[in-house]
């Protein structure tokens, strides 16, 4: 198909294999308060604005009960603010390790541009978080024509569709049915569906798969197949239009 435009996510899709930087920080800020959280609990809201992500985690029954046991009361908005205020500087410190461009990204983008495509992007990071990510990615050779964070849409990030609409406005794309949104979380898929665009989920190196590059590399061939199939089922349950093994598969659906 000839799309009007293609919009890509960042961490887990084009940079930071496995979206590991935020996972590490989420775990640390909760452990600092005596709360143990699992990778699955951290990854379930992945892709949201990080304040919303923390709020969603605190509503999970197991985490909320731990919070009550430690602090004697249910978490309040002030607690979300405190956690978020810890999260931002810790993530910025981690981003030196979390900005490596994923394999095949640069070659795929070069080919898409050769075919006449411009590349937009959305993220769950804020402006202050994205600036070092964009700078590092550009130094490595990846630089989409447009990026936007929830800061630019009044804090209404994913699963709201507004960042996609701002991409469309910037590029003057007209038809939502001719836009492809590619991401690595269920929240990415919801964002695309709420905007009315077509959606695609990346398997290898995604937050849905939930493995670091070393963890994935150390799996046997059979274990890799099992991990990929598990991720595929998550995307299928979310109603994803296309499921890609890695970013190169975008080229199979973009004329």
UniProtKB/TrEMBL annotation:
Active-site residue numbers: 9 (nucleophile), 50 (schiff-base intermediate with substrate)
Cofactor: Mg(2+)
Note accompanying the cofactor annotation: Binds 1 Mg(2+) ion per subunit.
Keyword Metal-binding included in the entry's annotation: yes
Catalytic activity, reaction form: phosphonoacetaldehyde + H2O = acetaldehyde + phosphate + H(+)
Single GO biological process annotation from the record: organic phosphonate catabolic process
Alphabetically ordered keywords of this record: Hydrolase, Magnesium, Metal-binding, Schiff base
First-tier enzyme category under EC: hydrolase
GO molecular function: magnesium ion binding; phosphoglycolate phosphatase activity; phosphonoacetaldehyde hydrolase activity
GO cellular component: cytosol
InterPro entries: HAD-like_hydrolase_sf (IPR050155), HAD-like_sf (IPR036412), HAD_sf (IPR023214), PGP-like_dom2 (IPR023198), Phosphonoacetald_hydro (IPR006323)
Enzyme Commission number(s) of this protein: 3.11.1.1
Residues binding Mg(2+): 9, 11, 184
HAMAP family: PhnX (MF_01375)
Description of how the protein assembles with itself and partners: Homodimer.
Family, as annotated: Belongs to the HAD-like hydrolase superfamily. PhnX family.
Function per UniProt: Involved in phosphonate degradation.
Designated name of the protein: Phosphonoacetaldehyde hydrolase
Organism the protein comes from: Megasphaera cerevisiae DSM 20462
Gene from which the chain derives: phnX
